[in-house]
Design brief:
- It is a single chain.
- The protein is mainly alpha-helical.
- The chain has a domain of 167 residues: Orthogonal Bundle (MetI-like fold), CATH 1.10.3720.
- It is built from 13 helices and no strands.
- The radius of gyration is 24 Å and the shape is globular.
- The protein starts with a helix and ends in a 5-residue tail after the last helix.
- InterPro entries: MetI-like, MetI-like_sf.
- Keywords: Cell membrane, Membrane, Transmembrane, Transmembrane helix, Transport.
- It comes from Halobacillus mangrovi.
């Protein structure tokens, strides 16, 4: 009976695995196609039928990228910008989420709603006043100017508030206060170890968000020495002739660090989704 039940269970899950496999292949295909185009000449981009097998020009196309833009300088600028912003957002969002989840103060709910409402405002609406403010501060052509707008993350504050309110029991905090712990000591010694999975999730979200940001970085950064990858890759798009092999080669190598980051934090990312309470 157990074997029959197990066999029926396996047969019932086959369609699910088939659908998941097809969805995974469809999700991965754009990355595979980008890799194929990065190994082919520019003419292969418009070939009929489309080319689906890799070629042998990966190194040659990437060499063209290096000859055209300061790729490694732009990558270093991007890694520095994304890492700094991610760490700052994690600290600010966790502190704000801790305050909103575990403290009572006047205007708490109103302030939290105001923070959430900023998520529905299109970023393009604030482009001109933000540019004027950054220019008055003298932060144009600097990574500080490119990243300062991302330090306050409403989504991060919301996620941290929800995770802390559900995962950190009030009884544990009260016990720590009876032992003489300050609020910051409770945050550092109790809250932070518990919310590590949420840190990983928010870190991946913020890192990829800043890594893929183009409009604001393109607006603020004009000096090639301060270019991030997105701005540097945009300069490869010539108005008269686009070398798609070179362009997609640069995009491919710019995507590799994101894949590495995700694989490195994948365990914590999944843990934050499945974990509903502290052990």
């Amino acid at each position: 009976m157990k074997q029959q039940h197990k066999s029926k269970l396996n047969k019932s899950t086959i369609p699910v695995y088939v659908v998941l496999t097809i969805a995974s292949l469809l999700s991965l295909f754009p990355f595979y196609w980008m890799f194929v185009m990065a190994t082919r000449p520019s003419a292969a981009y418009n070939s009929i039928p489309p080319t689906i097998l890799p070629g042998g020009m990966l190194v040659e196309n990437f060499q063209k990228v290096l000859d055209t833009i300061p790729f490694f300088q732009a990558m270093w600028n991007t890694i520095l910008l994304c890492t700094t912003v991610t760490v700052a957002v994690l600290i600010i969002s966790s502190l704000a989420g801790y305050a909103f989840a575990k403290f009572e103060f006047p205007g708490k709910n109103f302030l939290f709603i105001c923070i959430l409402l900023t998520m529905v405002i299109p970023p393009q609406l604030g482009l001109i006043p933000q540019y004027y403010l950054i220019s008055q501060l003298g932060w144009l052509d600097t990574l500080l100017g490119a990243g300062v707008l991302f330090l306050l993350n409403p989504l991060g504050i919301f996620l941290m508030r929800q995770y802390i309110s559900q995962s950190v029991p009030d009884e544990l905090m009260e016990a720590a206060k009876l032992d003489g712990c300050s609020n910051f000591r409770i945050y550092w010694s109790i809250v932070l170890p518990i919310i590590k999975p949420a840190f990983a999730t928010l870190g991946i979200i913020v890192f990829t968000l800043v890594w893929g940001e183009f409009l604001w970085q393109f607006t603020v950064l004009r000096d090639p020495s301060s270019y991030t990858l997105q701005v540097a890759l945009a300069s490869l798009n010539n108005a008269f002739r686009v070398d798609f092999g070179m362009l997609l080669s640069g995009v491919f190598w710019a995507t590799v660090p994101l894949i590495v980051i995700f694989l490195f934090f994948n365990k914590w990312f999944i843990s934050s989704i499945t974990e509903g309470s502290i052990k």
